[in-house]
Each structure stands twice: as C-alpha cells, then as structure tokens.
Request: fold
Amino acid sequence: MTNQSNAPVIKEVLLDAPAQKVWEAITDKKKMKEWYFDVSDFKPEVGFEFTFEGGDPQGDIYVHLCKVTEVIPGRKLVHSWRYEGYEGNSFVSWELFPEGDKTKLVLTHTGLDTFPADNKAFARENFNMGWTEITGTNLPQYLAKN
Reply:
C-alpha cells in the first residue's frame, strides 16, 4: 500500500544570502548540523551515501538513508531519501538561483507516494510541515547568524 498523493512537495524561498553561502550551508556537514540534520558525513559528489536520524511528531525516530544522485556545483544538489526498514524511495532536489545578493531556493521532494500509506509519519502533510520549517525558518535563521 502506498501513499495516495503522488504530488511532490515544493518549497520556494528567497534567502537573504548569496548563492555560494547557501551552497555551503547545504553541503558542509558542520554547517548542516546547525540548521538541518546531523548527517554521518557529506560530500556533494554523485554516489556519496550518507545517513541521519530524524523523528516524526509522535516522537518516533527514523534512520534516513540517502545517496547523492546529481550535483551542479553551486547550483543544484539531488539526493535520494529513504528509510531503513521501510519500503519506498524518494528524491530531494535543492536548486539555487542567484538573485543579486539573495538566492532563490527551490526544494522539491518527489516520490512520497512510494512510502507506506498506512504509516502516518510518511503522510505528505508531515513532509510539507517539515520542509516548511527547514527552508522557511531554520535555514534563513542560520544564514542570518552566519
């Protein structure tokens, strides 16, 4: 049984930072830990695999298994996103568009319909809430401080 909604979650935000600074925030393990997740390690290289733990609103912890699938340095990063012990595989795309001294970030999370629909943690609205907080609050706050 899979999630009924196959629509991707898309978040578009204008960040008050140059693209290079945003790129570093999304590709440097130490910087990622400050606003995103504490990833096992990270390199923006196709084929690089990384893991991290993340929870749901009910407090359950899920091990995320990810693999970088596309890199255009300073512009685009795509990686898979799946969960240890569960069916499904999705993809997260981070695209950066310089706009003067600001950067438009377009985050697209596709394949949510491949996760088990009977697990509420994998509901599209949870991904929508999570990405809203990550791209709309956590990342802008990190960039403002650093």
